[in-house]
Amino acid sequence: MRKSHPVRRTVLATAATVSGIVLLLSLKPASDPGSAEAAGGAPPAAESVQGGARPIGDGTVTGDAAQTQYGAVQVRLTVSGGKITKAEAVQAPKGGQSDQITSNAVPRLNQAVVRAQSADIDAVSGATYTSNGYKESLQSAIDKARASAPADTGNGGGAAAQAKTVTGDVAQTQYGPVQVRITVTGGKITKAEAVQAPKGGQSDQVTSNAVPKLNQAAVQAGTADIDAVSGATYTSEGYKESLQSALDKAGG
Q1: Where are any strands of DSSP class E within the chain?
Q2: Dist. CA 91–CA 204, nearest whole Å
Q3: Residues in the chain with pLDDT < 70?
Q4: 72: burial class by Cβ within 10 Å (0-12, 13-18, 19+)?
Q5: Using CA atoms, how far apart are residues 229 and 103, in angstroms rounded to an integer?
Q6: How far, in Å, CA of 212 to CA of 193, rounded?
Q7: CA distance 177 to 231
Q8: DSSP label at 222?
Q9: What is the Cα–Cα distance from 54 to 216, expressed in whole angstroms?
Q10: What's the pLDDT score for residue 13?
Q11: Who has the most CB within 10 Å: 75, 92, 106, 183?
Q12: Residue 121 to residues 124, 133, 232, Cα–Cα distance (Å)
């Protein structure tokens, strides 16, 4: 029998080596760090502190009232720099034993919100109904604040500077309706005006004196927490009520 030629053995060995290399390359792990990016994938983005991809908008916003077995609970938030800086209950159960429960539970819930920066807070012992109502209204307020946050358009914050005008609900007073319209730019009140105010007789003088002061105060404060004008208590209260409604509609 004829022995294999040395050249043939060399060719066969080279072919085997190439086949082995090809096989090894085909077994490269799919979990290679660059494989996801090469396939068009990307690591999931980190969520915001408030538990969502979208941050919450600055300003003051009031959640929907939550009805409980012992009365309504309604929460108002103040947001600055995308963080909750203040939480307060503008409505809470009252009367009888509820007064004691509310005075004990609400301050703790307010503090918990600022710490947690979300509605994921523990109920206060002995105040389960109040706590659950508080959390429900709180989530509503956070949802409203998040909805008001300007979308990131990638144009250097142009969306945040876009002005929007919103009119509050009409507030009925003893001397006539009051309705406030505000212009919000970059999350701040840049203009406030009364589109309705008491008129006729002495009301004309009271309105002409009070409304400009209230408009100026609203812009300076950036909230509905402004002082009443002396001698125009009813007009001032109606103005503040409609102003808060406008702020809620604007998202803070």
Answers
A1: 59-62, 66-68, 71-80, 83-91, 163-167, 171-173, 176-185, 188-196
A2: 34
A3: 1-57, 149-162, 252
A4: middle
A5: 31
A6: 8
A7: 17
A8: S
A9: 32
A10: 56
A11: 75
A12: 9, 12, 41
Residue with token string 């080596």:
17
Tell me, what's the pLDDT at 19?
Answer: 56
What would the two tokens of residue 42 be?
């990307």
Cα torsion at 50, 55, 58, 63 (round to 10°)?
A: -50
Between CA 120 and CA 113 the distance in angstroms is 8
Q: Which of 222, 179, 226 is nearest to 198 (CA)?
A: 179
DSSP 198: -
- pLDDT tens sequence across 66-121: 999 999 999 999 988 888 999 999 999 999 999 999 999 999 999 999 999 999 99
> How far is the CA of 155 from the CAs of 57, 131, 152, 158, in angstroms?
18, 42, 8, 6
Max Cα-Cα span within the chain: 131
Of 220, 218, 221, residue with least CA distance to 242: 218
Both tokens of residue 188? 């701040």
Which three-class secondary structure string do you get for 48-66?
Answer: CCCCCCCCCCCEEEECCCE
Q: With contact defined as beta carbons under 8 Å apart, do 219 and 192 qualify?
A: yes
Amino acid symbol at 176: G
What phi, psi does 125 have (nearest 5°)?
-60, 130
Q: Which amino acid is at 79?
A: V
